[in-house]
Amino acid sequence: MGPVLRLLPLGLLALLTACGPVYQAWAAPRPVPIGSAEPDPRRLLGTWALTDNDNLLFNLLLRPDGSALSATGSQGPRPLAAGTMTAGELMELGHWKGWGNGVRIDYDDGWTDTILVAPGGPIQWSWAPGRNRDEPPTNTGKAVRLSGVEAGWVGVYRFAPTQADQPPYLASLLSSGRAINSIDTIAAGSWRQEAGHLVIDWASGWRSTIEQPTPPAPGQSFVVRHWAPGADRQGPASSQRQGERL
Q: What is the mean pLDDT of residues 208-221?
């Protein structure tokens, strides 16, 4: 993942280097015998939970149109002097394609993630910008495909804020139940699904809700209601705005 620093442990790097033929069997597209078909990469579409080398979560969304989006923002606490989160810290955009027995995702910032079907289950291999994709990856880990209704909400959204002088901001919803935004200096929060809508409680004291019972499709707009800190959550919202799923 782009903005997250991911370094391969020296012990694992040495092991991969020593096991060159084994690594090549997974990292490079494998020859396909005449008369056989390459595994259909579309079987891997959906939402995935991956981790970086610091064991921090990010989610990867593989979509039927060939696009890919990663929802990030798990880097942990940051000093107030760092300001608000940037778009690059909350998401990455890219495209996927079939790659050997799995799928490869190339992001606009130069990073590459792959999901490969190994004997023990799906695994993740990632390369930093400028790294040779035929060499050992920058980072590795397990890949877990998400299922269930709430998994459909995982992703990145654009909200219009209450303040008319503020530009739209991003909200990244992770499969851990964490939410991170690009408008508050204290950007963390938590989200949950309730009957008829989705609720996000921000650490800043604000509450945001997406007013529809099912996850919106990419590019679909929806109504967002905001409650200011201290406002009665059972009373009228402080504002009602538009949102869009990215």
A: 96
